[in-house]
Amino acid sequence: MRLLLDYIRFHKKRVLLFFICTLIFALVFFLSNIPLDAVLYAGLLSLIALGATAGYDFFHYYRHHTALEELAETIDAQIDFLPEPRNRIDEDYTRIIQELHRQKRAFESKAYIEKKEMSDYFTLWAHQIKTPISAMGLILQKKGAWAGEDDREFAMELFNVEEYVDKAMSYIRISDISSDLVFDEIELDDLIRKSVKKYANTFIRKRISLDFQETHYKVITDEKWLLIVLGQILSNSLKYTPEGGSISISMQGSLLNISDTGIGIRPEDLPRLFEKGFTGENGRKYSKSTGQGLYLCKTIMDKLAHGIRLDSEEGAGTTVTLDLFQETLQ
C-alpha cells in the first residue's frame, strides 16, 4: 500500500493532467449537446485504458523498486547488476552510482595500502626497539648487587617502556586477531601466576599486597591473548592503587574477579570505559591513561567469546569481572 501511494505521488502531475483533460472534454461535449451516454462511454473507455496503462507501469515500478532494495544489501559485490535504465534520467543516475562506487573502491584500496604500510612500519619498529631494551636490561642485570636505587628506578622505567611497546604491538594485531587464535584448555591459575610474576617488582616497589585464591579452573581460550587481558587489568590496578593498597584475585563459578583498593572511577565514566580513546576523569587528572587499554581488553574478550564487566566506586576501588564460561572444546 505504501509503495502504491508513493507511485501515485510520483505521478500526481500526470493524474491531475488526466482529470483536467477529462473535465475539458466533458465540458466541450456538454456545450456541443452530445448525448450523455456517449460522453460517459468515452470516459469509461479512457478510464479503463488509463487503469491498464497505470497497472502495467506500476508492475515495472514495483520490480524496479524490489531490484534496488535487493541490490542495496549487496551493493559492494553486485554493483554491475543495477536494474536496466528505463530512460535518460535513469541512465544518468546509474552513471553517478557507478562513478561513486568506483571512487569508493579506489579510496578503500588506498586507505588499506596506507594502513598496511603504517602497520608494517610500526611492527618493524616494535621489533627493532626491543633489541636496545633487552640490551639495557642485560646491562642492569650485570650490575647485580652493585645496582643502586637509581638503577632500580631505571629498570622500572625500562619495564614500563617494554610494556608500552607490547601494548602497541597488541593494538596493531588486534584487527587481524581471528587468524592468530589458537584455542585450548588452559589452567587459569598458571596464567594468573605468569601475570603476577611479570608485575612482581611493581607489587614490591609500591608495597601492594596480593590476595590470590587459587581457582583450580580450566578455561577454553587462547593463552596468549587472555594473558594480555590479565596483564592489562593488573597493570591498571597497580597504576591506580596507592602505596600500601591491596589487590585480590578470586573465582566465583566461571567469573574471575580482580579487585583493588585504588582510587576508583566516577559513576558517570563507567558506561564509556570500554570505548576507544576514552580516558575519563582519572586519565585527565593523573595523565596516565591513553584510553586504549580497556578498549583492547573488551575487543580481545569479544573475540575469545568471553565477557568482561567493570564495577567501581570512586575512592573505594575497582573490580573487573571476566566471564570465562565456554562450551567444552570438542
Question: Can you put this structure into words, describing what you see?
Answer:
- The protein has 330 residues and is α+β, with helices and mostly antiparallel strands.
- The protein has three domains: 2-84; 116-175; 181-323, Histidine kinase-like ATPase, C-terminal domain (Heat Shock Protein 90).
- The protein contains eleven helices and seven strands.
- The chain has helices at 2-10, 12-31, 36-73, 75-78, 88-143, 149-173, 188-198, 200-205, 223-240, 280-286, 293-303; strands at residues 184-187, 209-212, 218-221, 246-252, 255-260, 307-313, 317-323.
- A five-stranded mixed β-sheet has the order 2-4-5-7-6, covered by helices on one side. A two-stranded antiparallel ribbon has the order 1-3.
- A hairpin with a 3-residue loop joins β6 and β7 (317-323).
- The model has no long low-confidence stretch (mean pLDDT 80).
Helical region count? 11
- Count of strand segments: 7
The multimeric state of the shown protein is single chain
The helix-and-strand class reads alpha+beta
Coarse morphology: elongated
Tag the structure with descriptive keywords.
330 residues, alpha+beta, Heat Shock Protein 90, 3 domains, 5-stranded mixed beta sheet, two-stranded antiparallel sheet, 11 helices, 62% helix
Write the layout of secondary structure elements.
Blueprint: H1 2-10, H2 12-31, H3 36-73, H4 75-78, H5 88-143, H6 149-173, E1 184-187, H7 188-198, H8 200-205, E2 209-212, E3 218-221, H9 223-240, E4 246-252, E5 255-260, H10 280-286, H11 293-303, E6 307-313, E7 317-323
Parallel strand pairs: 2-4
Antiparallel strand pairs: 1-3, 4-5, 5-7, 6-7
Helix pairs in contact: 5-6, 7-9, 9-11
